[in-house]
Design goal:
Blueprint (H helix, E strand, L loop, with lengths): L10 E7 L4 H19 L7 E7 L5 E2 L2 E2 H9 L2
Parallel strand pairs: 1-2
Antiparallel strand pairs: 3-4
Length: 76
Amino acid sequence: MIISEDKNMPIIQIQLFGSLTVEQKETLIKETSDAAAHALNVPLSTIRVLIQELPAENWGISGESAQKKLSQTKGK
Protein backbone atom coordinates (compact mmCIF):
# COMPACT_ATOMS: atom_id res chain seq x y z
CA MET A 1 0.00 0.00 0.00
CA ILE A 2 1.39 3.41 -0.97
CA ILE A 3 0.42 6.18 1.40
CA SER A 4 2.15 8.98 -0.47
CA GLU A 5 4.73 9.16 -3.20
CA ASP A 6 5.70 12.68 -2.15
CA LYS A 7 8.78 12.84 0.09
CA ASN A 8 7.49 15.97 1.86
CA MET A 9 5.07 14.67 4.44
CA PRO A 10 4.31 17.40 7.00
CA ILE A 11 3.30 16.11 10.42
CA ILE A 12 1.36 18.57 12.57
CA GLN A 13 1.06 17.85 16.29
CA ILE A 14 -1.62 19.58 18.34
CA GLN A 15 -1.50 19.25 22.12
CA LEU A 16 -4.31 20.52 24.29
CA PHE A 17 -5.83 19.94 27.66
CA GLY A 18 -9.42 18.97 27.95
CA SER A 19 -11.22 16.95 25.35
CA LEU A 20 -12.84 17.59 22.01
CA THR A 21 -15.89 15.98 20.50
CA VAL A 22 -15.42 13.76 17.47
CA GLU A 23 -16.98 16.52 15.36
CA GLN A 24 -14.52 19.11 16.71
CA LYS A 25 -11.60 16.79 15.96
CA GLU A 26 -12.82 16.25 12.41
CA THR A 27 -13.12 20.01 11.89
CA LEU A 28 -9.70 20.68 13.44
CA ILE A 29 -8.04 18.01 11.30
CA LYS A 30 -9.72 19.23 8.09
CA GLU A 31 -9.03 22.93 8.61
CA THR A 32 -5.47 22.39 9.83
CA SER A 33 -4.72 20.09 6.90
CA ASP A 34 -6.20 22.51 4.37
CA ALA A 35 -4.22 25.44 5.79
CA ALA A 36 -0.94 23.50 5.85
CA ALA A 37 -1.39 22.17 2.32
CA HIS A 38 -2.04 25.70 1.08
CA ALA A 39 0.79 27.35 3.05
CA LEU A 40 3.35 24.70 2.14
CA ASN A 41 2.09 24.16 -1.41
CA VAL A 42 1.94 20.39 -0.96
CA PRO A 43 -0.83 17.92 -1.77
CA LEU A 44 -3.44 17.49 0.96
CA SER A 45 -2.76 13.74 0.82
CA THR A 46 0.70 14.31 2.33
CA ILE A 47 -0.50 16.09 5.49
CA ARG A 48 -0.64 14.20 8.80
CA VAL A 49 -2.28 15.60 11.95
CA LEU A 50 -1.86 14.20 15.46
CA ILE A 51 -4.13 15.46 18.25
CA GLN A 52 -2.99 14.74 21.80
CA GLU A 53 -5.51 15.44 24.53
CA LEU A 54 -3.84 15.63 27.91
CA PRO A 55 -5.37 15.99 31.36
CA ALA A 56 -5.26 19.56 32.68
CA GLU A 57 -3.38 18.35 35.77
CA ASN A 58 -0.48 17.38 33.47
CA TRP A 59 0.05 21.00 32.33
CA GLY A 60 1.79 23.65 34.39
CA ILE A 61 1.04 27.36 34.08
CA SER A 62 2.90 29.88 36.24
CA GLY A 63 3.91 27.25 38.76
CA GLU A 64 0.47 25.64 39.14
CA SER A 65 -1.42 22.93 37.30
CA ALA A 66 -3.75 24.08 34.55
CA GLN A 67 -6.54 22.25 36.34
CA LYS A 68 -6.03 24.45 39.42
CA LYS A 69 -5.83 27.60 37.25
CA LEU A 70 -9.05 26.65 35.47
CA SER A 71 -10.89 25.98 38.72
CA GLN A 72 -9.72 29.37 40.08
CA THR A 73 -11.01 31.09 36.93
CA LYS A 74 -14.40 29.37 37.18
CA GLY A 75 -14.72 30.50 40.80
CA LYS A 76 -14.46 34.19 39.85
